[in-house]
């Protein structure tokens, strides 16, 4: 039985959402807050870099868990979407208010 391209359609949808949330997160971090001093901006940058390392490690675990499965690529892509959305939800308020 063929899926009729369902997986590809799901991946396209998730990819579009990933682009949207990635763009929103990037814009949020680039904008910052006008009253932030250099030390605070350094902390924000360090926080984001640590989160990126966490995100990448989580992707690797997701990929290893689903390796070889027919839905692995969907699970992996959705992991990206979920983690980025979660990051947006928990951004420090001074950044969120920029």
- The total beta strand count reads 0
Please, how many domains?
Answer: 1
The unreliable regions are none
Strand content: under 5%
User: Average pLDDT value?
Assistant: 79
Q: What is the approximate shape? A: elongated
Q: Enumerate how many helices there are, as a single number.
A: 4
Q: From the 3D structure, determine the CATH topology.
A: Substrate Binding Domain Of Dnak, Chain:A, Domain 2
Category by helix and strand content = mainly alpha
Distance between the termini: 51 Å
Radius of gyration: 16 Å
Reported for the largest beta sheet, the result is:
none
* CATH uppermost class: Mainly Alpha
Helices and strands, in order, run as HHHH
Structure description:
The protein is mostly helical and 98 residues long. It has a single domain (6-96), classed as Substrate Binding Domain Of Dnak, Chain:A, Domain 2. It contains 4 helices and no strands. The protein has helices at 6-31, 38-66, 72-89, 93-96. The chain is elongated, with a radius of gyration of 16 Å.
